[in-house]
Request: fold
Amino acid sequence: MNVAAQRILVIKLGALGDVVQATGPFAAIRAHHAGAHITLLTGKAYADFLGASDWFDEVWIDERPGWKNWRAWFRLRHRIKRGRFDRVYDLQTSDRSSGYFHILLPGPRPEWSGIARFASHPHANPKRDDMHTVDRQAEQLAMAGVAEVPSPDLDWVAADISRYGLEAPYVLLVPGGSAHRPEKRWPVGRYTELARRLVARGVTPVLIGAGPDAHATGTVASFCEGAVDLTADTSFAEIVALARGAAGAVGNDTGPMHAIATAGCPSVALYSFASDPALCAQKGPDVTIIRKDRLDDVSVDEVEAALKLD
Reply:
């Protein structure tokens, strides 16, 4: 096969933390298929962000059809078939993405790296779910012949953050997270106390979050004069740019903390019993993990010391 004529599909639908940790595999696939036309299938939220990289020639948005929406599934099947892909790298490895392999029948299917039954290049490790995301994806690609997988990397991200008017030093605080997982959140009152201590040090607390995090971030901002609340006012690229200029960051086990840590910001990530850092911890040059069964048991003194601002 003429390598230059290869057509490759990469599937990574989300979420933000998983997308960040897939940047090493993205780079590896591009290097391995240097002359190929590579298409990414991803969630709408990540299309512009990942489209700004040089890893993909084309970005498709996944419509996430409901299981009973057969018309949407037929459209997806037709689109993938029409793409004439030689190989697919399923980095999502979910029931949904594996289903994309099965809907291609009847007829020929491309080579497939993933966990779908009958895939040509399966990640055939029964203990794959016991591996950290980064290690698991590297092994998956190795089994598909892609031997060199670099660490997650956001050096390619560019954004102008001058509109925020921030002056150093500042620290990013990420007090939000999944609304249905309160056990993964350090108490808002602790974030508020930490923010006040930062202000007393002459350091500006900068609150990062999405719309659903507004209660947590707004509470901190309300009770800490001097905090800057950027909730729902940052793109993924702007979060990365803010992280590059920050003196540090503190946050729960949530997506923005992955981007912040990978960007090189000294980061303190807080974990409870609800998630295992051995499987999903943030990756970066300076990451401190604090884990206790109950985040109520993590003191402000402990977190402040971990920031190493002195």
About this structure: The mean pLDDT is 96. Residues 3-143 form a domain with the Rossmann fold fold (CATH 3.40.50.2000). The chain is about 35% helix and 15% strand. The chain has two domains: 3-143, 162-307.
